[in-house]
Amino acid sequence: MSIESDSPAGSARLAGNPAPVAAGAGFADPAALGLAAFALTTFVLSFFNAGLIPRTAEGVVFGLALFYGGLVQFAAGLWEFAKGNTFGATAFCSYGGFWMAFAFLARFTDLSGAGADAEKGVGLFLLAWGIFTLYMTVAAWHTNTAVFAVFVVLTLTFFALSIGAFSAVAAMTRLGGWLGIVTALLAWYASFAVVANFTFKRTLLPVGPR
What we know:
With 210 residues, this protein is an all-alpha fold. It is 71% helix and 0% strand. Helix 2 packs antiparallel against helix 3 and helix 6 runs antiparallel to helix 7.
């Protein structure tokens, strides 16, 4: 998920001088962890949104949203900050925050007094995340094909779910669920590629050009 650029280290190496050690250079790539946490949590929730699993069992998502999609992904974002990757840090910390906010909204926020307007509030919540994801998609164009594909489909997912919440059209929510499943599978592939390519020390799974 890193975005490489010209650096003082590269210039020093070309000049034959010892390259300075970059801050956080000893960290492993946190992208695999962040993508995996995002993918698994999205996968489970999307099955409920798609209508494949009854809503009565939706409580299984909340622990994932708080701990794996939330705290673990947020931690991956902090490691991206340490590595100097603004894109990865912004993405993982933000979506970690999203999952924690989702868990709080679903479990601890009382919207019973809002009546039918509660769904409009949820629609606004999802719309705002769709807007954020849209501009992150523009930045993702300069990462790689796998990550860019994740952001494209995730943008469509948020907008479909938002329309479903605002309009109370169940078909749009189900569409958002299916798009979410595709998003999760793409994110899992990107995570798998990072882990496999590092472990095998070669490009076992391509992620596409930048």
